[in-house]
Amino acid sequence: MCNCNTNTLIPVVGQVTDIRVDTPDVKTFRVVSPQGGVCFDHLPGQCAMVSIPGVGEAMFSITSSPTNREFMEFSIKKCGCLTDWLHQIEPGQQVTLRGPYGNFFPVEGELKGKNLLFIGGGIGIAPLRSVIRYAMDNRANYGRLDIVYGSRTAQDLVDLPEIQQEWVHCPDTQVYLTIDKPQPEWDGHVGFVPDYVKELKFNPDSVALVCGPPIMIKYTLAALLEMGFDKTQVYTTLELKMKCGVGKCGRCNIGSKYVCKDGPVFRCDELDELPDEY
Amino acid sequence: MIYQIKTEKLPQLLERLAAAQELCLPVEHKGQVDFASWTPKAKVRLDVCNTARSAKDFFFPQGERLVSFRMEGRQIQVEAPQMEENPFVIFGARPCDVRSFQLLDRVFLSDPVDRYYENRRRRATIVTAACLEPEETCFCGNFGIDPVRPQLGDVVIWTAGDTLYWESLTEKGEALTAQGGELLEALSEEPEALTQAQDGARAIHERLPFGHLNLQAISSRDWREVFEDPIWEKLSKSCLGCGSCTYVCPTCQCYDIRDFDTGHGVERYRCWDSCMYSSFTQMAHGNPRTTQKERFRQRFMHKLVYFPQNEEGLFSCVGCGRCLNKCPVSTHMVKVIQELGGKQDV
Ligand code: SF4
Ligand code: SF4
Ligand code: FES
User: How far is the CA of B52 from the centre of ligand 2 (A)?
Assistant: First the structure.
């Protein structure tokens, strides 16, 4: 007999209950199980395969924190067939989910008790938000929180209301926002994320979590190393095309690793052990 | 225990086995030999060394339905597929193909277990046909396979002269032997004719042109050095990216998942895919393997370096020789091994 509970390729149904327009091309979808609550448990940084059958299936970071038992959230950028579709749906639409997949930021391991420096670019805030919220919900377990977040324009900053209304008020937390080019209504910092990080001169007394476009990650990593950070103090996430999510279809293979199973979270010294194919 | 049956009586045995469960064996159809279900009219070809397609289809078919969905308005219903339960026999798979199942097991039976694969694997009884007459392209001996006395599958058979010898290795094998009943004649000791045939075959295997490649020469190199080796540029130049090598390969396991709208619902299928195709890693914002060089390198790095890194040194090749026969530009596994430093010792 087929034991569907353990057949990882068979998804469960999730109901979209709320859709937030974050930026011109990013929406955040709130999903609950038809029975109420989250569809499955996850850890910060883990991903799920989200699908509209007939349209497609793709891997997305679960952006809500595991501490949230009521719903899961996915911040999704419009960039292809499935995401175009998702951007057209309305609350009440069902989707399918399978997961959780991949590893996670070691929030109960190497990150515990440490100062955390989050550096995000654009939609790269998606995998970070889960950890940021987790750290804020377990505030006593972590030291200082520094969050550097940048986007092309002010309109492209995802989660901005949440950042301005909640994150900045969290104890012992600094939020640094930046946009690439000046805009009339923007009185904050202007400049690319890696340059801003250099300007801010962080002490290498924290663990850095860096997510964003590959080019941003590359320059940010260089900036951090220059400031005295060791590669073992920096975590990032990789993104490759995925199909199965469980290390079998071969698609996300890079060196001896499968990003869907052994990633998406990698410590930067681990990346040195992989070929440069990401 | 060894049994024997005269080859002229083999049709009777096959008929009996086929009556008890589905029996699949090499059958000639339109000039090509592939595994097919036994029928009284089937042109059985146990003499042919390797089928054109590998035997992986039995457990990992080229296409299969994973799950179905009913869509009503905004509602989605998920329908798990019915898993079949009937047992079947793979009769006459070669040692290399049977060894490939063990390599595929490492992928599909590792956590989380692939239920589709596992189900078929559980239902199958495997009869391995020892290779007494290998082809020039065979090089399984390099991968720790003993083609003459394979310890692979549930039953091993040898065809020598007018006799087929039969040895059961497992409980499933015993059960199949029992089905043969009086047609399989038990022998008190290993017959001289079989030993002689095996010795003769060993001498042939010893002389195979690619029988003694030096794989150690590759394993001992640092992966980075292999990755950066100029041979990828050189060998990939002629590669057409046709993917034939991956389709015929018994250990290639990459797949794609696709949905089909039937009008009444959506069927989700998986089908073989190939790392040799540019679409394989194409993403909305770019492709990490931009040219055929990277794709070509990936296929061989995976089999010769990455898979061994993860699986206790096991290579993901069984030396079946299919890619040697099928690559339209003759850029195959043996060439890669040789260029990477694995030329014959002697
Ligand atoms: S790489 Fe070639 S020789 Fe090796 S198992 Fe695959 S098809 Fe056979
Ligand atoms: S190596 Fe040969 S068979 Fe494989 S994709 Fe290239 S041309 Fe086709
Ligand atoms: S998505 Fe299939 S191996 Fe990673």
Answer: 16
